[in-house]
Sequence to fold (253 residues):
Amino acid sequence: MKKRFAGLMVLALIFSLSFVGSAFASSNEVKLIDSDISVIYKNGYVGFSGDIEVANLGASKSVTVHYTPDNVNWYDASASYVGPTDSTHEKWHFLIYTNDSTNAQHTELKNLHSLKFAVKYVVNNQTYWDNNGGANYYNEVNSNYPLTSIILGVPNVLNANSKLSDGAFSGNIYVKNLSPVKNVKVVYTTDNWATTHEGNASYGYSLNNFNSVEDWTYSFNVPGATNVQYAISYTVDGQTYWDNNYGHNYSVN
Fold:
């Protein structure tokens, strides 16, 4: 009986050690928004960056990206506070890079092929993880132009950029490729929502080697407009997803 008990204790110890060393995904405490790997071969630039949303659970907190370029050695990169996304959540951003011309520190990114990573959030002496449901996130250098590989975390649709120039309102949208048939639209106003316009975005290209995220583009004539407010809708498989900047809508001028 003593031998059996001792054996159970050893198993329990092994399990507890494995548990401590593992990352478990949280629910709403921390979420990856997006991440990308960018490569410029001319000067050896390789960048790894992204955005994270966390619940504002305390004044003192840290957000860290735990990553490996070779599935053996793991590194940590700190994210920086950007601002609130709504009344209870915040956006954080991380960026690390290596560059031959400036001898940047992150030499582990040299000759990069792929990365696995998870996001760690520490607040109130509690640690929360987003590790993509236990699989960790994965991205790799894009084999096609442009040499930027983008993946999305929680959002199915994400505003990438926009501009208002010479009477044209244009921009890019990132969407998860959830089905071959989809509809991406921009709802916008040039007069603070007194009147509303709607226009379709068009497929541009895949943003990674997995064809999991697509770039969609749009351009609408808005003669005389000095400010455009807008939101984005993405309809696929009978479901409509929105990016309306957490209920505030986007604005460009």
Observations:
- Confidence is low (pLDDT under 50) at residues 1-25.
